[in-house]
């Protein structure tokens, strides 16, 4: 069986220019529509962690988010560039803990921590289908 090759200290960075779709207007926040939204920031944080995991987990497994803590501290305008750095803090069994730092051209705008679990992909999908069957039974 393939080993988990993630190690504490491994890191990955992603970057993007804040587009209109990334602003608060996408979430119905008129009046501050030129600002980078927290949901778009969270999406980037998740993407950075998933990219870092990459092929560093055994075949047939995936990681799923179990917890996320975010502090969005500073506003960023549309057109600025946001960089998210994910770093593996530690591994405990099948659990990976990440530290996250988010910056724009001016400085740090957010920080966070994410907990992701390494799970069997087929078993995860089967559990989801089993849960959906409950709805089908209720609707009959």
UniProtKB/TrEMBL annotation:
Pfam families: FlK (PF22636)
Boundaries of every Fluoroacetyl-CoA-specific thioesterase-like domain copy: 21-122
Domain of life: Bacteria
SUPFAM superfamilies: Thioesterase/thiol ester dehydrase-isomerase (SSF54637)
Name the record gives this protein: Predicted thioesterase
Organism: Anoxynatronum buryatiense
Source taxonomy: Bacteria, Bacillati, Bacillota, Clostridia, Eubacteriales
């Amino acid at each position: 069986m393939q080993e988990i090759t993630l190690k504490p200290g491994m890191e990955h960075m992603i970057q993007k220019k804040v587009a209109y779709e990334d602003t608060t207007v996408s979430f119905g926040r008129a009046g501050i529509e030129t600002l980078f939204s927290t949901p778009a920031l969270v999406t980037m944080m998740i993407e950075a962690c998933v990219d870092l995991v990459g092929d560093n987990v055994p075949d047939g497994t995936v990681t799923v988010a179990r917890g996320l803590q975010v502090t969005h501290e500073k506003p960023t305008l549309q057109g600025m560039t946001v960089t998210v750095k994910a770093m593996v803090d530690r591994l405990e069994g099948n659990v990976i803990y990440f530290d996250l730092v988010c910056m724009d051209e001016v400085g740090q705008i957010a920080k966070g921590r994410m907990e992701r679990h390494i799970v069997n992909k087929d078993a995860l999908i089967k559990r989801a289908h089993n849960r959906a069957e409950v709805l089908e039974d209720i609707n009959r």
